[in-house]
Amino acid sequence: MNMTTEKNKRPPLFSPGNTLPFVLVTSLFFFWAIPNNLNDILIKQFMTSFQITRFEAGLVQSAFYLGYFCLAMPAALLMRKFGYKAGLVTGLFLFGTGSFLFWPAAIIGSYGFFLFALFVIASGLSFLETGSNTFIAVLGDPRSSEQRLNLSQSFNPLGSITGALIGTVFIFSGIELSSRQIDALKAQGTLDAYLKSETLRVIHPYIVLGVVVWVMAILILKTKFPNIKEELQEKDARDKGKLSDLLHYPHFLQGVSAQFFYVGAQVGTWSFLIQYIQDYTHQSEKVAGYMLTGSLVAFAVGRFFATYLMKFFRPSKLMGAFGIINMALAAIGVLFPGWVGVAAVFLTSFFMSLMFPTIYALGIKGLGANTKLGGSFIIMAIVGGAAAPPAMGLLYEVWHSMAIAMIIPLVCYAVVTHYAYYGSRIHPGHAESSTVSEPASS
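The structure assignment produced for this chain is given below.
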C-alpha cells in the first residue's frame, strides 16, 4: 500500500485492546444525563411543592451547573496527577452521595438543601464530564476524535430520555390543583400535607440512582485503563504544559465561549419546554412531560444521525448548518407561540444534538500536554446552563411570555454557528499533537 493511500485511509475509532474501557466510559455518558434531565422535571415539581416562581425554580439549574464550574478545574488537576480512572471514580462517588442527600432534603422539606444536593451531584458530574470527554477524544487517532466523541455522546440522550421518563412517571403525581382548589386546601388546613407528599415523591428515583452509580464506581475501579500518550507527555518533565499556554489557542478560547452559549441554549430550552407547552397548548403536566421525553428522543436520533453524517461532512461545517437551522426554529418559537412554536422548539433538540461533543473535540485539538486543563475549561463553560434558565425565567416575569424567553436560545445558537464557521479554525502554527492511545495496561 503506497503512502498516499495509507494517509487517506480512515483511522479506527479506538486502538485495539481498549474495548472495555471505551464501553465503560461510554456508559457514563448515559448515567450523567439522567440527573441533567431530571432537573427539567424538578423545576416543574418544585414550583408546585414549594410554591415558587419560574425565576426561583430556574435556580435548580443555577445550583446544578455551578457545581460544574467550581469543580471542573480541581477535577482536571486531580486527573493530571493521578490519571483518568481516579477522576472518574471520584466523580461517581460524589454523584452517588448527592443523590442520597435527596432523602434528608425531602424529609426536612428544604428547597435550599435540595439545591445543595444538586450542587454535590453536579460536582461529581464535573469529574465525569472532564474525564470522560477528554478520555474518549484521545483514545485513538486525532483525525477521528470528533466522530469517536459523537459516538460516545450518542448514549447521552438515551440517559436524557430515561431521566425525563423517570421523572414524568415517578415524580409527577398527575395532580394539578387550580387556585380555587389550593384555597380550599388552605381553608381545610391540608395544603401543607399535600405539598409535603409532592416533595417526598423525589426520594425513590434518586436513591436508586445513587446505588447504581456507586456500583459503576466499583466496576471502573477494578478495570485496567490504557496508557494515553497525552498523559505520558504530561509526565515528561520537559513537557508539563501550563495554564498560560492556553491563551495562545484562539480556537480553544472561542470554544469555551461557544460551549457556554450552547449549554445555555440546551438547558434553557429543556428547562422550560414543559411550561411553554402548557402555556400555549394547555396540556397537562404529564402530557407535557411525555412531549419533553419525545424531544429527547429526537435529540438521540439526531446524535446518531450526525455521527453518521460526519463520515461525509466536516464536523465544523455540519455543526454550522445545524446552528442555522436552530436559529430559524427558535425564531419560529418566539414569533408563533402555539402548536407551530411547540413543534419548532421540539425540533431544536434534533439539531442541537451534535453541538456539545463537536465543540469539545474541536476546542481541545492540538493542545498536547494542556489537553486536560483545556478540557476542564470547556467543562467549566457548562456554567452557561446556570445562567440561561434564570434569565429566561426573568424575561417571563417581565413580559409574561415564554415565547419571548426563547430569544435567549436563539442568540446562543448564533454564537455556536459563528464558532462552527470561523472560531474553530486552528492557527497554522499550532500543529496537532498526537494523542493515540497505547494498549491497555494496569
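Interim note for the steering committee: The chain has a mean pLDDT of 88. Strands lie at 226-228, 437-440.
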